[in-house]
Amino acid sequence: MMKSGKPMLVVDSVEKSVKFYTEKLGFDVVDLHVERTESQFLSYAEIKKGKCFIILRTPSIEELAEFSMIKRLNLRGSGIVCEMKKGIDKYFQRCKKKGVSILSELKDNEWGVRSFIIRDLVGFKIIFEEHIEGFKPIKKQTFCGFTVPLDATGQP
């Protein structure tokens, strides 16, 4: 049985990414690791905001070719979803003031969440969402053995 999970984002520069996530998005640093070679650099960081943890790390030498492919593909949809307890409107305004790249403006979705999407320095998409208070799906539909709740319009 799994206890929890943390997404790991492979980035060009852990230092620049930590600066972006802490200064622009308000994350806190949990752990840092400095790689000691000819020159020292941050190779790993764990950051968090509330209960949302993210690991940032640079690719190893063996992963550099794979990383170049990841970098090309991450603009096609790679990213994470951060569920917020409250304060999404205020957080959205903070992101705009800090000059964060907003891909999707703050909006209410028919599946019962208020959300917006940003892009980080590397190109990963981050969806911030908050459940709309009082939203209740009214129907259920079974598809391929899975039951999906539907809202008043029949949408998941």
Describe this structure in words.
The protein is built from three helices and ten strands. Strand 7 (113-119) and strand 8 form a beta hairpin. With 156 residues, the chain is of the alpha+beta class. The model has no long low-confidence stretch (mean pLDDT 83). It is globular. It has a four-stranded mixed sheet with strand order 1-4-3-2, covered by helices on one side. The chain has a four-stranded mixed sheet with strand order 5-8-7-6, covered by helices on one side. Strands 9-10 form a two-stranded antiparallel ribbon.
Any chance you could write out the topology, listing elements then pairs?
Elements: E1 8-10, H1 14-24, E2 28-36, E3 40-49, E4 52-57, H2 64-73, E5 79-84, H3 88-97, E6 101-108, E7 113-119, E8 125-131, E9 139-143, E10 146-150
Parallel strand pairs: 1-4, 5-8
Antiparallel strand pairs: 2-3, 3-4, 6-7, 7-8, 9-10
Please give a handful of descriptors for the protein shown.
four-stranded mixed sheet; alpha+beta; 42% strand; 156 residues
Task: Give the integer mean of the pLDDT values.
Answer: 83
Q: Specify Rg, calculated over alpha carbons.
A: 18 Å
Order of the strands making up the biggest sheet: 1-4-3-2
Q: Give the low-pLDDT segments.
A: none
Summarize the structure.
By secondary structure, the chain is α+β, with helices and mostly antiparallel strands. It has helices at about 15-25, 65-75, 90-95, and strands spanning about 10, 30-35, 40-50, 50-55, 80-85, 100-110, 115-120, 125-130, 140-145, 145-150. β9 (about 140-145) and β10 form a beta hairpin.
